[in-house]
User: Fold these one by one.
Assistant:
Number 1:
Amino acid sequence: MIRVLAEDVMVQPVVTCLDMEGVLFPEIWLGLAEKVGLDELRLTTRDISDYDVLMKKRLQVLKTHGISIRDIQEVVQGIAPLPGVPEFVDWLRNRCQVIILSDTFYEFVRPLMKQLGFPTIFCHSLEIDSKGFIANYCLRQKDQKRHAVLALKNIGFRVLAGGDSYNDVSMLKEADAGFFFCPPESIAKEYPQFPISRNYTEFQEYLARAGGFES
């Protein structure tokens, strides 16, 4: 969305980068943990700051208990956006470009994106073996959220960002304006520089002020 002043000076266009799980949708791994009854899968990026450590733990649990990609896909099929998300996303997409930056995986995220009209999402990929089990995970890029924000800034965008977990912090730091959405108290206390919104009305107000568009 490009706005032009009377003097024909172009105002910097805005793009908002949002985390997915915890901000737009419930956590997929928590849903899987409930389905299979394994507390080991309840750990998320809210609990462990090192994503590689977290994913290795997850893959070991999946291997030990014979949990396949189909099991995860079945969980994803039953996940709906958090209450208020469709309206929030519609509001935001009417005011600026929106990109979802997530550490989830393309192999099971499509049903979630369909519910929001297929917004752009940058995430990672999985290696699936011939029997349908996850053999490994492949990062599209290490610290991909921060790099995506930096790239958008380098091509002339003002970047706003919103997240809730440890793996969002570098993205929030790199953005022109970064916000927490319903983070755990422990993370909020660790990074007090980021304003906190507890609902989508507050989130809209923060984004509108930072982006220079109407609330």
Number 2:
Amino acid sequence: MARISLDPPRTILNRVLATYSRRRYGDVLEPLRAVGHHAAVTRTYALTELGVGRWKALDPGLTSLAVMASAVAIGCSWCVDFGYWESEHQDTDPAKLHDVPRWREAGAYSPRERLVLEYAEAMTATPPTVTDELADALRDDLGDAAFVELTAIVAQENYRSRVNAALGLTSQGFSDRCEIPPAGSLAGRGTGSTGGDGQENLQG
């Protein structure tokens, strides 16, 4: 159950974002509804995500793995749920996403993918456990621009996952539209949050 109402004020900003979200994703994203109580936070949140969407230095498959590893480590079932849906639309192998909670034992990953998963986990740890050796290996493999983008996307996913988890947001049902459901330690954590009356603001 969400820890904040998912029926935010009916502001122009909230209405615009609801319309955009519904057209792009088929539903209004619950994180938008949750932060919609604070106009400045909502504006920053939306503009940041639009900017992140323009990052192109890192391979999308590596981005998906890094994002999923961070979401799993933090325990954000909303991000895991949405991550499956979003990655399927980016032609990411769903089997690799499925095995992220057990990536060290799984055999589906390339050496580069294992470095990315290790880095995402190390960045997400509190305190971070990134080593010089791991960073150097990724810089050599990816190049500096992609390494910086990887670092930034993991940090962004930490922001998303920690906000969503703290606000009590759980799976919104996006993964139900994919062939493979959320796996590992996050399987079955919630089936959705409630709130709102379906009107054209930040509501589903």
Number 3:
Amino acid sequence: MARPRKKARAGYMISAVAELYKLHPQTLRLYERAGLLKPSRSQGNTRLYTDQDLERLEVILTLTRDMGVNLAGIEIILNMRDKMSEMQQQMEAFIGFVRGELRKGFSAEDRRTVRNAIVRAMPPKAIRIEK
């Protein structure tokens, strides 16, 4: 059974990308085999590179051409970049959650819980520090 293919938003064919970046198409195929690039495919199984793929290709070319990094090193660097981006998104979501909770402050239910507690705990007070 044939599995459905991903549809590209806007795609550039391998020949156009190779010409644009002065690469041989085999180099792009090599990057795909190494797992560095993952272009989508058309109905006719033609590789279609999106703008996001081209941005990733520019990073790969900078690492190879300007910095002399080999394919194994590029794979590690790209994986680290992806993980750092994911962690950044998680941190931003966490910061948004904390800010939302701070904006809420203590609700009426929280105050009632403090009054009914076995050991009363007063809400924390802000401490002013002067220089």
Number 4:
Amino acid sequence: MLSGNGFEEVYNLSGGIKAWQREVAVGPEDTGMYLFSKEMSVEEAIVVGFNLEEGLRDFYLQMQLRVEKEEAKKLLGKLADIEIIHQEWLVKLYSEVTGIETTVPEFLQKTAEPVMEGGLTTDEYLQLYNTDLNSELEILSLAMAIEAQALDLYGRAAAQTENREAKDILLKIALEERSHLAGLSHYIDSYGELS
């Protein structure tokens, strides 16, 4: 299924999902699917992706206000800044697809209310993962869980869409989410060595 949907490298995991040692998506199969329609256009898919990145950026900034530990505040600020890089990538993709040059601030004005990546609300994520927001490693683990949720959501959205071009874009965004996960995983590994 994955190789047929544009994923070039597909690995079988010995022992199945029970042997998997990293984050997995959680919740009902339809979580977040209200954001995507079967007939959505390429432009709409990118706008939804942008809104998800903005929602996650806002989440990190709101969490930054709740923590007391200075290192945790700095980490949440860094994670919020990384979301701007993700937004810039989506705006560039939008410009490539539509031929319309735009910027992140201009794009923000034309998009809908931001929502969290993965389709859950801020409170749902906090309840689900019960994260100690003064622990940098727990914050990073939460960030990975959110990215895993987003990767899963884009895959499910791509599987349901009837627009081939939108499906291709959703799979491209899913691959980008996979690279976000890899980056966070590397950061956690190096952070663990420093702690």
